[in-house]
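Sanity check record (used in CI):
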Amino acid sequence: MEKILERLKDAKTIGIVGHVRPDGDCIGSCMALSLYLKHNLPEDRIIDVFLEPIPNKFLLWKEAALVKQTNDSHIIYDYFIALDAGSKDRLGFAEVYFNEAKTKINIDHHISNTGFGDINLIVDNASSTCEVLFNLFDEDKIDLEVAKALYLGLIHDTGVFKHSNTREKTMNIAGKLIAKGVPFSKMIDETFYQKDYLQNRILGKCLLESKLFLDGKCIVSSLEKDTLSSYGVSPADLDGIIDQLRITKGVEVAVFLYETGHQEFKVSLRANGDVNVSKIAVLFGGGGHVKAAGCTMEGSVSDIINHLTNLIEEQLIK
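Expected output for Phosphoesterase RecJ domain-containing protein:
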């Protein structure tokens, strides 16, 4: 870990990218690393962050307005760092910069990570990429703004410390970040729990129209593009739906899918019991963790559900 930061001290240009459809850990890790480097490297360094549009609830830093959302720059970066992305194709529009960079660094915590960097730091028992970064940083050099970014990743990838990836070490790190002055209660409410009226409506529809399979051990809900349009919601408004499905009593696996193109669906999988949903997601080009994973699948809703429930059932009967 120390060697990575040591090498970055000599870099003149550094690029940072997260995965497509950035979530709390992705945004938190990108902001944490960029702010940490800007605060601790000479001012003449170029440090650029590339992300798809950041949801308003995650705009916690004035520097977020400087995040680049196009690939029209002509810089070949000395170092380009991918954060929280399980595979190179998850880098979206910024993949071209990663490919052209002199040195490519891949930092992640997903067990399914393909190790696509020249330098790979994959800590698959860490709760989040932000936890990996905390261990990479000099704790004394973590200021309040960096601490807020790291805390954001911790709370979102652990479901506010309730998922099975929460360890004693995770809680110790959270405590150290709170000691830096992180407004933890406000951040949890405003970035994790709080929903606007439209988000509550679409959540209600998904719960109302959800279906149970496999003798009540699997719950599924889906949204097609026409429904998304009629409700006026975007993918960013769908956060939390899969988690609400997961806590249904008696459910072992929750599945939520929404249409992103003609018969193309983004699929989220969550497990409560012994089913390894990462193993299922990898079969369709996705990945993630044992109890939380995702992928993109093509076909009709019924075909996708049949595929997934068959694979889930195979693990349930073992």
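The mean pLDDT is 94. If this sentence no longer matches the regenerated tokens, the check is flagged for review.
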